[in-house]
Amino acid sequence: MKNYKPFLYLSLLLFALSGVLYLIHVTDFLGLILSLSFLSLSLGVKSTENLQGLSFTMIIFSAVSLSMFHPEYFRVWGGFKLGGIIVPLIQIIMFGMGTSMSMNDFAAVVKTPKGVIIGVVSQFAVMPTLGFTLASLSNFPPEIAAGIILIGCSPSGLASNVMSYLAKANLALSITITSITTLLAPFVTPLLMKLFAGALVEIDVLKMMWDINKMIIIPIGAGLIFNKLLKGKSKWLDDAMPIVSMIGIACIITIITASGRDNLLKIGPLLIIIVLIHNTFGYLLGYWSARLLKMPERDCRTVAIEVGMQNGGLASGLAEKLGKAATMGLAAAVFGPFMNITGSILASYWHKKEPKD
Question: What is the DSSP string of 136-168?
Fold first, then answer.
């Protein structure tokens, strides 16, 4: 087994150096040193079993640190606006999701309809309502407030499946809820946005439906066909897609952060607090909605994670399509990394506690 502890010590040294540079107002290399600190920490956490799940999140923080200090590198390359690659990246991620699915994944809808219905209804009831409430209380500018609602109206994220597995939850149910909410998103998300955010920003429901179809349904459909035709013959793709997806998510968050950097500097701390409340109350309300309806403990854990963890990539893509990546896209850019931290902590806690039904 590889020894990652030296990277943990190196990250602490680099963080200390970052602090010194900040205190003496030498900021020319501060972004680079901070980015290297998180990069080293992403390897260092692998030395501790309970923290291994945070490795990818540390890589995200590394990229975000660089984009906060040097946003000019992540906005335009050779006259091309990097925001233009957000939607294609989401389509690649969704295609990867499709290649890992088959029609058998939806058999659980027939076998355990109660769990699926409770999970899907909780997802599209709890998070949009929470998002609207928090946005109303935040006193943020309309477009940034609409971004909080947008992340709430998005379907559950792919990371929820990994966290459900680590939390000893019902993985089959998790995959099914993610798949169903994702496939319903083109129809449900625009309607919820019109209902909750229509007073903040102009929402063209039909256009948003078509945009989500292009980002989700068409790529997933292509992935399903690819899987059907080449089942068992594309192991290289199965191995590569998780890595491609992680790189894609990191790129999306980095580009959104760079484009909205000035707004983040103004409202960053408060937005982080609101995002954490949104995320953690999603877990709490998701868990108890299932618990009150007499679902088994494994299923309660699954619904909690599915409700609390959102598809930040889709929210970012929609913000970009609306031409508001620097405002509406901010909540999604903040939500992504922090939900992985809270999700890892929750999954680690449940991993140590055997479900008792």
Answer: HHH---HHHHHHHHHHHHS-B-THHHHHHHHTT
CA distance 130 to 142: 16
188-237 residue pLDDT tens: 999 999 999 888 888 888 888 888 888 888 888 888 888 777 766 666 76
Cβ neighbours for 195, distance < 8 A, ≥ 6 positions apart? 128
Could you give the angle at the alpha carbon of 68 between the alpha carbons of 66 and 74, nearest 5°? Answer: 70
Token code pair at residue 116? 């699926």
Domain boundary among 43, 62, 78: 78
d(Cα 233, Cα 256) in Å, to the nearest integer? Answer: 36
CA dist 146 and 330 (Å) reads: 10
- Domain holding 92: CATH number? 1.20.1530.20
Q: Look up residue 11 and give its two tokens.
A: 């990250």
Output the six-digit token pair for 15.
């963080």
Q: What share of the chain is helix, strand, coil (3-state, %, to 5)?
A: 80, 0, 20
39/65 Cα distance (integer angstroms): 10
Tokens of residue 240, six digits: 């590569």
- For 19, phi then psi, to 5°, come to -65, -40
What backbone phi and psi angles, to 5 degrees, belong to 81?
-75, 120
Is residue 295 within 8 A of residue 142, CB to CB? The reply is no
Q: Are residues 72 and 153 in the same domain?
A: no
Q: How many residues appear in the chain?
A: 357
- Integer Cα distance of 258 and 23 in angstroms: 24
pTM score: 0.82
Is residue 54 pLDDT above 90, yes or no? no
Structural domain including 327 reads 79-351
Measured CA to CA, the distance from residue 150 to residue 154 in angstroms comes to 6
Domain membership flag for residue 356: no
Domain boundary (26, 56, 78) is at 78
